[in-house]
Amino acid sequence: MTSEVVHKATLAKRAASVMNTVTTDQKNAALLTIADALIAHTADIIEANKLDLQNGEAAGTSRSLLDRLALDEARIEAIAQALREIALLPDPVGELLEQFDRPNGLHIEKSRVPLGVIGIIYEARPNVTVDAAGLCLKTSNCVVLRGGSAALESNRKIIEVLRQALETTALPADALQLIEDSDRASVNEMLKLNGLLDVIIPRGGSVLIRTVVENATVPVIETGAGICHTYIDASANADMAASISLNAKAQRPSVCNSMETLLVHEAFASESLLSLAEQFKAAKVELRGCERVIQLISGVKQATDADYATEYNDYILNVKIVDSLDEAIAHISTYGTQHSECIVTEDASNAARFMQEIDAAAVYHNASTRFTDGFEFGFGAEIGISTQKLHARGPMGLPALTSTKYRIIGSGQIRG
Amino acid sequence: MTSEVVHKATLAKRAASVMNTVTTDQKNAALLTIADALIAHTADIIEANKLDLQNGEAAGTSRSLLDRLALDEARIEAIAQALREIALLPDPVGELLEQFDRPNGLHIEKSRVPLGVIGIIYEARPNVTVDAAGLCLKTSNCVVLRGGSAALESNRKIIEVLRQALETTALPADALQLIEDSDRASVNEMLKLNGLLDVIIPRGGSVLIRTVVENATVPVIETGAGICHTYIDASANADMAASISLNAKAQRPSVCNSMETLLVHEAFASESLLSLAEQFKAAKVELRGCERVIQLISGVKQATDADYATEYNDYILNVKIVDSLDEAIAHISTYGTQHSECIVTEDASNAARFMQEIDAAAVYHNASTRFTDGFEFGFGAEIGISTQKLHARGPMGLPALTSTKYRIIGSGQIRG
């Protein structure tokens, strides 16, 4: 018997050939139609969401997770509004990237095409369901969604509403598929679905991402962990260094672009680290330090190698005093996850060296690492932040959901 | 104990930070130096190659494989010349791809950077050893090479020569690593070496590629099989159709961009297929046909579903008569490998539909699929032909061996 995963991925693959021929106007109209349908079915969606919340409470789900799962009128309006904004973005599909003529008269064009069928595996946030659907439809892709079981009732109702609404548009309803089987086996099946899925994008915590990367035979876009550093150089402006490092740590510690370790040049440390540490303490940040930090600041716990390798996503910060830019670069090369790294300095040549030598998706001079974000970069959308080097790196906008195709136009050319 | 694979990949990763700072001039000078070194050590290399040939003969290796393995003065000169040509190509590393300013004053630049450490797993052709080394060095990458055991003595000598020559240049010798352990376990170890290898590129037959795709946790660039089609439309120019389809099949059947199945519109078939079949027979191509072809042409074997799904790489061709462009597109969508597909037609709207609706790396109108090739496209180099949709698709030139990095220059910006 065909499994749910194979059945729905097959329907999506068939729909991909229709999606390959729809126009930008048709896609944008469909995005507005499904946004309206979400609003029109607000009550139904909230009712389905209540079932998820009840199941979650019965299962002892934490208050913060239930909060992220909960939908109300305002949240559904925000989700629909996000679709309307996706409709306003430029369409990358069809964009002519290169064209050239060969001496034999062949004319060659390279242009953007959809990826085809995208598998998205994510956790219990029903807004991701709509956001992923909107981004995939805008880029002429089909999508097979596999959300967390905690949001199954909400996701089922949302996809039912979206698919019904698509029936009234030029886009095929089968472009949107939801895997309802909440067994882990359905994830594993998706990961091996070469030939039906063109790419898998995991969106969620590090365990989910590791599972996908380690088991997928389908190509993956990894949106991974961020152990981000800020290095305060000897010549840093003290106020700027404090402002940037506090923002990088404490403005929203739970996200991947927040700072986990602060590296401080000893010349800066002897002048200003004590007062900076007071500001972190005032922001309720627990400090863990190297030997020299412990000697300088009372009540600081020793930072271990394991601490330097941890993405806390919390109000905890490692602080290490270094003797040189080289030592800072070496530390980041050892413990960083090639996400976002910052140098605060007034020394242009140190800044240039840091920006060149640090291997990361985003390197900052005198700005907070918190800016690594598709909206902050002005992309108008964000599929995630890629921490791999293939295909897309850093914040991913709509072009990250496209591939390319060569069109070769001849007049009978053959190869000699 | 650290294995050879981990040891050498670690050395390569360390060397990557040096490669990240070398200049284009330094790289080009090093390429010329290693080309000279190969020539200077021609006798040593031929001697090592003789050991491989003797081992191969003792093991009963086929004549054609021994031919591909054999090195002589002319071949070594050709290999060295390829390095000199790589030196002449433009350097993609450092290329500024985008830059923009945000309303908050952040200046954002996106530029090309090396991938880092590339693992290349390939079969018994020592020219690949030098070619891969040259392409990786040109793009500021380090490379861990794992060639077939049949070429081990040749590869060991070649890499010894190249590494010694690099010692006299600005590039680190450790940028080039050869895995000498010929056990399959060393391949499997490379496939899981996340954190040390940034990407793996398999170069070889379908079994090797499948092994890599199915087992790697490191991101892979798949250079896969080609089941390529030529569709002769009702309105095709008969001479052009014959010339293109004969070239696509018989000019070099062993390569991935050669044709495996010819689809012919019934209007063309009734006029011209008989004479075209005679030309294929004269070119010693065995034909396998659908029912209608068998009725039309005597002595043609029935083509099975398995035949349509086979990359023959040989003088064998499936021929199928179709009633419409739609049927041709449907056949290609079922059996094609998204490599190279051609329509021969004088009908512009049919050509446009074929080029839009066929999902492949390269789609041709009135030209042979044999042109899918980095050199034929004018790239001056070819790492392989990607049949996946992520990162690079179709013939890969030097930019396919790069990633990108965002540099963000601020003046104290923090996120609100």
From TrEMBL, chains A, B:
It is found in: Cytoplasm. GO terms for cellular component: cytoplasm. It comes from the Bacteria. Residues 5-286 form the Aldehyde dehydrogenase domain. GO terms for molecular function: glutamate-5-semialdehyde dehydrogenase activity; NADP binding. Belongs to the gamma-glutamyl phosphate reductase family. This is Gamma-glutamyl phosphate reductase. It comes from Paenibacillus algorifonticola.
